[in-house]
Amino acid sequence: MTHDYLIIGAGPAGLQLAALLERDGHDYVVLEAGAAPGTFFSTYPRHRRLISINKVYTGSDDPEFNLRTDWNSLLSDDPDLLFGRYSQRYFPDADDLVRYLADFATATGVRVEYRTTVVRVSRDGDGFHALDADGRTWRGRRLVVATGVSQLHLPPIEGIETAERYDTVSVDPRDFVNQRVMVIGKGNSGFETADALVETAAVVHVAGPHSVRFAWQTHYVGHLRAVNNNFLDTYQLKSQNAVLDGTVESIHRRPEGGYLVRFRYARTVEAIREIEYDRVIACTGFRFDASVFDDTCRPRLVINDRFPEQTPGYESTSVPDLYFAGTLTQQRDFKRSTSGFIHGFRYGVRALHRILNSRYHQVGWPAVELAATPEAITDAIIARINRSSALWQQFGVLGDVVTVRGDSAYLHEEVPVAYLADGGLGPGASSAFVVTLEYGADHDAVDPFDVSIPRVAENDPHAAHRASYLHPVVRHYRDGTVLAVHHLAENLENQWNLPTVHQQPLAAFLKERLADGEVGTEHLTDGGFVAEHLTDGEVVPERLTDGGNAEEVRVDAGS
């Protein structure tokens, strides 16, 4: 039997896609190596506290709005399938997520073959073939890989194979009493491990070549989270712990026990020092396991071979009909948005489902019809940006798209911006308004707690284009090119609905763009500029709508 879709992996992404396919009556099967859904979370994080927030009490009864602070629920119409029913802790226990995923699979009726370990994937003219460990072959016209980053990523350090690993090291602090420990890696897994050893280890050093980056500053939630950074307090207050900036050159296991580490400092006169430790633990991140693919369908890998390279439609750039879902799709917005996490990729999976419907089932992207007037479009945009969770979570990646045909406008929700720019919505979307939520270009360089740094005034429409904080941006596209841009003023409580600050300036922008009709390189009466081409890294003028001079911005292709 050949299915329309083979899905490998019954983690959150595999379950999300399967639930959508099940709802629509499509032919699919999910292959899962574990005995239950979400087995990755039976092990990780090792110390069992999730960093995906679970804010149950928001003051709102709008389910869409509440998903902004619910980072663990999958998308469903069933109110019983909300993670807040499983835990009310802000940082919940990983076992609660495992329990939730099992119930989600049961309630949605997804078709999963458990204890089915795929050992080889091949392809011929009829589609994909997945051979499992029991010798069975599963066939599919399309293949969706939702296995996540299942292998520990080990950097090329001499002797690192002798070190202990985050995925197998003991999590009992009593096993480290009075020991000197080096933790390699300055991410959440490294500091999670170090924090757990503060009370028992004699000395803990956390080492890595890059500066510690804080999620509260970069807005990338994979950077160091406050819940894991207590170790920094012990370092700065001289409690025998330290953060080492530099490169581990080599790790040698000593015959008498322990390790000798050669470390190259990044910021001291003493270039290399040899340091003795009782334990060395590699907490160096994870990577995609591509070993099951044979030469007929091995996907191209990028980012130090850690992720499969993907098109704007989440398809392999080198293997047609091979798609990816879940944390693997962070290749598209690596360390810039949230595709690596449930609260981000649940919307990416829904977008993938819509892409598959369009390509293989002749089902267009869902759209809501509006009157083609500035007022009607403004009202629709304002309503969406004040409650949408998808645009909130997938900032700069997903956008609402408004197209205009005759006397009607059509609102397409949650479209990957790069997919639109690539022509994904077809010729009817050649001229479109795209609405995203975005941080300012310099947001990660601004210390939000430094009161001496001037900030853009809240609710100032004339300075909206200089905002660092999250705010709505509306762009007018034609044939993949941005013709005009309008920023809505930032607001402390993210309520962009003030008549004179948000609504009226947006309506004026839309009125001008709609009145222009065939928008090209015509003269703009308010003194703005038109950006005719966007290329990777090219500096182009971005049009201002308040009559000021254009501000030059750096644009990354596909962003």
What does the model show?
The two termini are 40 Å apart. This protein has 559 residues and is of the alpha/beta class. Strand 1 (2-8), helix 1 (12-23) and strand 2 form a beta-alpha-beta unit. The longest helix is centred in the middle third of the chain and has 20 residues, at 342-361. Residues 518-559 have low confidence and may be disordered. Strands 1, 2, 3, 4, 5, 6 and 18 form a seven-stranded mixed sheet that branches. A seven-stranded mixed sheet has the order 8-14-9-10-11-12-13. The protein has a six-stranded antiparallel sheet with strand order 19-21-20-22-23-24. Helices cover 20% and strands 25% of the residues. The protein has helices at 12-23, 63-66, 94-108, 188-196, 215-218, 230-236, 342-361, 374-385, 390-393, 417-421, 499-516, and strands at 2-8, 28-31, 112-113, 118-124, 127-132, 137-145, 151-152, 164-165, 180-184, 203-208, 241-253, 259-265, 272-277, 279-282, 286-287, 301-302, 307-308, 322-324, 367-371, 398-405, 408-416, 431-438, 471-478, 481-487, 539-542, 551-554. It has eleven helices and 26 strands.
Which structural traits does this protein have?
alpha/beta, seven-stranded mixed beta sheet, disordered C terminus
